[in-house]
Amino acid sequence: MNNNNATTTTKVLFVCLGNICRSTMAEAVFKHAVEKRGIGEDFDIDSAGTASYHIGANPDSRSAETCRKNGVPMNHKARQVCDADFAKYDYILCMDEENLRDLEDMAPEGHKAAVKMFGTYDPKGDRIIKDPYYGPQGGFDRNFAQCTRCTDALLESLGYE
């Protein structure tokens, strides 16, 4: 069930530090979920990083492989959060408390976006989506499970089943 006005697009930006692991995975998982539900046209979805380390880079191969093995397509080039994002997006959802502090510092006065951690939607209460970059593959698998749970809960909170 969709409680949104048919002409309204909900704009969601996922954010992590470098935009090659967690936020790209969250973007891919969320896009896949809305497409599977047939509601893709109701959303404008992207991801970005708080830092400029990887601008223009493809997603981390381990993140891409985790999505691929779960049947989720991933297509993104890393970019950095900019002032315009705070005006464009309804939701800017980050992966950890450091990202949240960085976003709050970057946010222009009077912005409209709801800025919060994506993990606040996790029904298991696992608020932090940890950076898997320096760890084993298991961290990417854990992130995928978290992103899936948070996606389902976010969609439910927006009036979608």
UniProtKB/TrEMBL annotation:
Q: Where is the Phosphotyrosine protein phosphatase I domain?
A: 10-157
**From what superkingdom does this record's organism come?**
Eukaryota
Q: Which UniProt keywords apply?
A: Cytoplasm, Hydrolase, Protein phosphatase
- Gene3D superfamilies linked to this entry: 3.40.50.2300
First-listed, main subcellular location of the protein, grouped into a coarse class = cytoplasm
Please give the Gene Ontology molecular function terms for this protein. Answer: acid phosphatase activity; non-membrane spanning protein tyrosine phosphatase activity
Show the catalytic activity. O-phospho-L-tyrosyl-[protein] + H2O = L-tyrosyl-[protein] + phosphate
Q: Which residues form the active site?
A: 16 (nucleophile), 22, 131 (proton donor)
Location in the cell reads: Cytoplasm
Cellular component annotations (GO), alphabetically ordered = cytoplasm
Q: Which PANTHER family match?
A: LOW MOLECULAR WEIGHT PHOSPHOTYROSINE PROTEIN PHOSPHATASE, LOW MOLECULAR WEIGHT PROTEIN TYROSINE PHOSPHATASE
Its family remark reads: Belongs to the low molecular weight phosphotyrosine protein phosphatase family.
The protein's name is Phosphotyrosine protein phosphatase I domain-containing protein
